[in-house]
Amino acid sequence: MPDQVRHDDSETFYEFINLALMGRKGGIPMTEHPLMKPIEILLVEDNPGDADLTREAMETSKILNNLHVVGDGEAALAYLKKEGHYREALRPDLILLDLNLPRKDGWEVLSVIKDDENLRRIPVVILTTSRNEEDVIQIYNLHANCFITKPIDLMQFINVVKSIENFWMTIVTLPPNGIKK
């Protein structure tokens, strides 16, 4: 098997990618390229502390992103359907969804997203405090793309957010951001 690049150090990984993109002719680093469009992320989180930590982790990112935060399930669906004061909202490339939300819980939001032909291709990462095995099974039955239990430790939480970001924004090919039938 050929040698593999280790991704233990994300800083080194990004430097490697930037060097690969720049080549020997002095190209533009990936994060500064004028044609790079930011990744649109919708965070559905009712805990202001968790929302702030997620925002801080994303702001230090080497990947262009716009993080949009809503605090309950009804607001999330209004955002996704461009209703009310969300008429101008951009369609997210990725959704980070808490399960325990006011007004409409994350279970209902996920179900609506995955039942809607125009929304179902948006990847949904469940980011919750639950460790219940039945929750995991039910969430995957509703077609979530990922289930992550929020760590209690501050640094672990930031590392989890950065891991989500690294995986979903550098490794995975996201579907085109637009409605296709």
List the topology elements.
Elements: H1 10-22, E1 39-44, H2 48-59, E2 65-70, H3 73-80, E3 94-97, H4 106-115, E4 124-128, H5 133-141, E5 146-149, H6 154-171
Parallel strand pairs: 1-2, 1-3, 3-4, 4-5
Helix pairs in contact: 2-6, 3-4
Structural class: alpha/beta
How many beta-strand runs?
5
What overall geometry do the principal axes of the alpha carbons give?
Answer: globular
**Strand/helix succession:** HEHEHEHEHEH
The appropriate CATH architecture is 3-Layer(aba) Sandwich
Q: How far apart are the first and last residues' alpha carbons, in Å?
A: 40 Å
The residue-averaged pLDDT reads 79
Percent helix among the residues? 25-40%
Report low-confidence residues grouped into runs of 5 or more. Answer: 1-35
**In CATH, what is the homologous superfamily?**
Response regulator
In a few lines, what is going on in this structure?
This protein has 181 residues and is α/β, with parallel strands linked by helices.
Summary keywords:
alpha/beta, Rossmann fold, 181 residues, 5-stranded parallel β-sheet, 5 strands
